[in-house]
Amino acid sequence: MLLPFIPEVGHFALILALMMALIQAGVPLAGAATRRPLWMAYARPMALGQFAFLLVAFASLMASFLLDDFSVAYVANNANSQLPWYYKATAVWGSHEGSMLLWCLMLAGWGCAVAGLSRRLPAALMARVLGVMGLVGSGFLLFVLLTSNPFTRLLPNVPGEGADLNPLLQDVGLIIHPPMLYMGYVGFSVVFAFAIAALLEGRIDAAWTRWARPWTNVAWAFLTVGIALGSWWAYYELGWGGWWFWDPVENASLLPWLAGTALLHSLAVTEKRGSFKSWTVLLAIFTFSLSLLGTFLVRSGVLTSVHAFANDPTRGAFILILLGLTVGGALTLFALRAPRVSQAVTFGWLSRDALLLVNNILLVVMTVTVLLGTLYPLILDALGLGKVSVGPPYFNALFVPLTALLCLFMGLGPVARWKRMPARELWRRLAGAALGAVVLAALAPLVYHGRWNPGVSLGLLLALWLVLSLARDLVDKLRHARSLGAGLRRLAPAYWGMQLGHLGLAVTIVGVTVVSNYNVERNVRMAVGDRVEVAGYTFALRSLGKRRGPNYVADVATLDVSRDGESRFTLHPEKRLYLARRMPMTDVALRPGLLRDLYVAMGEDLGDGAWALRIQYKPFVRWLWLGAALMAAGGVLAVADRRYRRGREALRRNDEVTAS
Amino acid sequence: MKRRLVRLIPLALFAGLAVFLYRGLGHHPDDRESALIGREFPGFSLATVADPDVRHDASLLAGEVTLVNVWGAWCPTCREEMPQLLTLAERGVRLVGVDYKDTREAATDFLTTFGDPFAVNLFDPAGSLGFDLGVYGAPESFLVDREGIIRYHHTGYIRPEDVEQEILPRVQRWRND
After folding, report:
1. pLDDT at B39
2. pTM for this structure?
3. What class does CATH assign to B33-176?
4. pLDDT digit string (tens) for A266-276?
5. CB interface of B with A, residues 33-62, below 8 Å
6. What is the domain range of residue A109?
7. Distance between CA atoms of B177 and B175, rounded to whole angstroms?
C-alpha cells in the first residue's frame, strides 16, 4: 500500500531531518551561551532524531533502487532493471544526489556517535559540539533539498528503463570506497566541532584533547582506508595499472589526509605538553575545511576530472556559500578567540616537541604544495595569466623530496624525549639504525635486481630508517623490564598505534619505490597460440571467446601462465561492452601476490583474430595498500588507549595538573 | 593588537582563496568559451608521434573540417575518451591528435592498447602548442573548419552522448558551411 509512496516518505524524512538539525544547531548553542541546562539538553535527542530520519530517507532511496522505480529521476539516471541487485543497492551513492545524502547520513551518524559514546562530556561542551555539527548538517541538508534532491520524480512520463549505472562504478571498489572516504571526510567534522566549541568556551586543556583525539584518529583511519581503496580501485578498474594519478579528485582526498596527519601529531603535543594550542585548533579547522573544499571541487565542476560529477553552477555556488560560511565563520572566531600563546612551555631545539613541530611544518608545506598544484590552473586563469596544466611531474618533483625529509625526522621523533634531548644520546641510540639502513638500502637493489639503482636505494633507505629506529625504540623500551612479557604489557596501545602507523608508512614507501622502479610493462599483439615472456613468466594465449553478463557482453581471453616451464595458472581478462550506455570497459585479469602482481588487460581487437594486450609485472604493488591498512590499524589501535576510556579519571588527573 | 592581526592571517588567506573559487565558478570549464573561437588555429611546427623527422604546420588543418584532440598517455581521462574518438573516426570525422607533454614511447604504447583514431598525431612534448591553445588540462578538443578557423572548443572528456549531441552536429554544420 505504501509502496508507491516510498520516495515521498524519504523526501518527508529528509525534511524532518533538516528540522531536527536546525533545532540541534540553534537551541543547544543558545543554551550553552545563556547557561540553560534544559536548552542544552536538546542536543542529544535531536542528534539521534536527525540520524534516525536520515536513515529512513536513505533506506527509502535504496528501496526505490531495488524496486526499479524509474519514476524517480535519480534512479532512472543511475540504474537499470538488468543491473544486479547489489549494484542497485550501492548505486544509491553512485552519483551526486545520492552521495550527498550519504554524506549527510554520515555526518548525522558521527553526531549520533558523539551523543552516544561521549556521555561523560560536560553538558555545555556536548551542547556546543553537537550544536556546531547540527549547523554543518543543516547547511548540507538544505543543499540536498534545494539543489540536489534525490527524490525528484519524473511524472507523468515515467521512463520504461533506466540509463544504467556508469560501468566504471559497477565494481566492489565502488561499494566500499566512497563510504569509507566520506566517513573520513565527515569524521573530521567532529574534531572541527570540538575546536569551535573550545573557541566558544575559551578553554583548551588536556581533557579537551583527550575528548577530541579518538574521534580524530578514527576519522583519519577511515580516510586512510578510503584513499587506499580509491587507489586500488583505479589500479584494477581503469585497466591502466597506475595507482595514483594526481587527479584533482585524488588530491582533494589527500589534502585533508595530510592536514589530518599534522593534526594527529599536533594534538599529541597539546595533550602531553599543553603547547601548540592555537595551532591545533587551526589545524582542526583546516582539516575539515579541506574536506569541504574537496566536496566543492568535485561537485562544482570547477576542475575537470575523471571522477567529476555532472555539474551544475547553482550547486557550485551553493557549496561555495556553505564553504564560505563554515570556514569563514570558523576562522573569524579563531581570530577573535584563539587562546593566548602560553609562555610557560619551553622546549629545546632537539626534543620531541621540536621534531613534532618540524613534522607539522613539513606536512603543512606538503598540503600547500598539493593545494597549489590542484588550484594553480584556476588561479592563473582567474588572474588572466593564461592557462597551464599541472601534471604528475610537478607533484612528484615536490612531493618526493618533502616525503624524504619528513621520513628523516620521523625516525628521530619517537626516540626523542619531550622538552629536551641531548644530541649525543640521540646519536648513541640511533647511529646503529642509521648505519644499518644505509648498508641494507645500498645492497638491496644489488641482491634483488643485480644492479645498483639510486632511486630504489633512496626509497629503501627511508623505509629502513623508519623501521630500524622504531625497532630500536621498542628494544630500548623493553630492555629495562623484568621480563619480555611484563615489558610488552606495560606499553600502552597508543604506543603500539604509533609503531604500527609509522611502520605502515614505511611499508607504503617500499611499495611505491619498488613498483615505480621495477615495474615491467609490455604491450603486445597476440593471436591464439602466441607466447610472450614478461619478467620470467610465460603468457600463452590459449583461446578467445565471448561471454554474456547480466548487463554487458564481453570478449574474453584465456591465457596460460607458466614459469620455468611449469604451468602455474590461467588468467581471464575481458573487454566488456555495457549495453545500456554502449560503453566499453576493460576488466583486468589480476594474479595478486605479496611480492608481485601479474596484470593483463585487453586493449583493442586488431582483426585477424589478434588482440592488443597489455601485460604488466608489478612487484610489491600490494605493499602500497598493505601499508595504508597498517596506518589505519595504528590509528584505531591508539584509540583503545586507557586514557580515552576513563573519562572521569582523565578529568580528575587534569584537575591535578592544573592545580600543580 | 599585533597578535590579533596575526590571527587574522588564516581568514585573509581563505578569503583570497574563496575569491578564486568564485571566479572559478564563472570560468566553468565546460562552458569556458575559448578566446580562440573564431580565430585562426595558432601556428606551429611539430613532428609526429610516429616520426621525429616529419614537420607539420597549420596547413595540416586546411581543406577539411578537423577535430583536434589534445591528449596524453599520462591522462586517465583520455583513456576513457578513446572509444568516443574511435567512434568519431569511424563516422568519418578527421581527427588530429596533439600528444601533449608526453613521451613517444608512452604515446605509442597508449595507441597500441587503446586504438588510434588519429589521422596525424602531432608530438608536443614541451606543451608549446597546448600553451598557445590555452589548454587547461587534457583532454580538450577543438573543431577547426576548412579555412583553419577554430569553431568549437570542448573542454574535458567527450562523453559517449556528446558524440551524437555535440560533436557530430557541429562537424556537419561546418562541412555544409
Report:
1. 80
2. 0.81
3. alpha beta
4. 998 888 888 88
5. none
6. 1-170
7. 5
